[in-house]
Amino acid sequence: MAIRNDQGIVLRSYPFGEADRVVVLLSPNRGKLRTVAKGVRKTTSRFGGRLEPFTHVDLVLYEGKNLDTITQVSIIEGFPRLRADLDRVVAAGSMVEAVDAVAQEDESSLRLFLLLQRGLRALDSGVVGRQLITSFLLKLADVVGVAPALEACAACGRPEELATFSFSSGGVLCQRCRGDRGMKLRPGLTEYLAALERAEFTDLPEAEPSLVSDAMGVARRFVEYHLDRSLSSLAVLG
Amino acid sequence: MFEGPVQRVVDELSRLPGIGRKTAQRLAFHLLAVDEVDARRLAEAIVQMREQVRPCRRCFNMTGGEECGICMDPRRDPHIVCVVERPQDIPVVERTQEFRGRYHVLGGAISPINGVGPDQLRFAELKDRVADEQITEIIVATNPTMEGDATAMYLAREFKPLGVRVTRLASGLPVGGDLDYADELTLGRALAGRMEL
Ligand SMILES: [Zn+2]
Ligand SMILES: [Zn+2]
């Protein structure tokens, strides 16, 4: 058995045995890591709050047969301002939930890691709102290779006569390709989604509240459709 | 593998949390070795507990009656309520002998990642109690975890506008610990919640 170093952002953890937790992290090098933190539920644990969700930590791991055991942790970035606000916690929850759904074990995931890190940094610096979640989900879809076609037909690639949006066909469809697939989106919605996908988290385009809310609905359904899994954190607090 | 009835007890015991195969076997053979009355007392205690214990209609603590002993105790201050995640947290707070109010068991904590929202917890019941019992202070005793924090923030958001004082157990350094071992998060909170000497 060997000792190795790694780092990662804590996605979630769950109780394990009497006082331990299984801590699930996203490592930039190794994808999803499932590790054991011994005694972490005791108030006297030397890990303290270092293994709470959303924390970017440096780890020393003792390799085990099934799960690696954490022997040392130090915080690289703790995002303390994010934790002090309920809306930001819920937003961060939906980010890690989506990442958890797409990340694989033993698979390098640098782009996914950097996306999550940027998302959490944006939340920590004060960016909140549905635009951020929408933009995050669209970029996540891009990282895992299922980005929706928004500016050209998903079937033929033509940028003209875009008519409907189809979850199963992977985005907008033009007049010629649509057949009976897809649904009509309200004017301006695909353009707004495209702008959110391109934008930096710190410079997200504004829109009227109902458009912002519809955009999140479409992005969420799109990601849920392609991950074949519902994102429950988005339902928390409406 | 053992004879039917023994194996059945081993199987049942090993389904309990924290009890593995080996421990289950040891317990089963212990129960075979002790006086029959002792084994029967345990079986009856389990059956009685399941038949009689239910949530207190006021605070959702576990009780054998309609209301729990704490809620019925006239010496306790009905206007201060300590909010906990689970019934088993109540004896933990009670052991401090520092709290003389009543409790409210939420039934869990808000967990964005697991999709547990306020609707699945007993916030509506707490709202009713605030009105009915003229509660003036809510002391939040949820776990110092992300979920416990989210729950505390939600309580503050919902109940402060009603004129209720919302406080939370201070988070800080474990008694008997060494300062060097404290992590940044814990130390940061201890600093934010520092006390005048
Ligand atoms: Zn087309
Ligand atoms: Zn009660």
What's this entry about, in short?
The complex is a heterodimer of chains A (about 240) and B (about 200). Chain A is α+β, with helices and mostly antiparallel strands and about 240 residues long.
Written description of the protein model:
The complex is a heterodimer of chains A (238) and B (197). With 238 residues, chain A is α+β, with helices and mostly antiparallel strands. Chain A has two domains: 3-79, OB fold (Dihydrolipoamide Acetyltransferase, E2P) (Beta Barrel); 81-237, Recombination protein O, C-terminal domain (de novo design (two linked rop proteins)). Chain A contains six helices and seven strands, in the order βββββααααββαα. The longest helix of chain A has 19 residues, at 209-227. Chain A is elongated, with a radius of gyration of 20 Å. Chain B has two domains: 4-52, RecR Domain 1 (Helicase, Ruva Protein, domain 3), CATH 1.10.8; 74-168, Dna Topoisomerase Vi A Subunit, Chain: A, domain 2 (3-Layer(aba) Sandwich), CATH 3.40.1360.10. Chain B has helices at 4-14, 21-33, 36-52, 69-72, 89-94, 123-132, 146-159, 184-192; strands at 54-55, 62-63, 77-84, 101-105, 137-140, 165-168. A four-stranded parallel sheet of chain B has the order 4-3-5-6, with helices on one face. In chain B, helix 1 (4-14) packs across helix 2 (21-33). The chains are: A alpha+beta (238), B alpha/beta (197). The A-B interface holds A 11-12, 17-18, 43-44, 46-50, 52-55, 75, 78, 80, 83-86, 89-90, 92-94, 96-97, 100, 232-233, 235-237 and B 18, 110-118, 144-146, 149-150, 153-154, 157, 174, 176-177, 181-186, 188. The structure holds zinc ion (ZN) (2 copies).
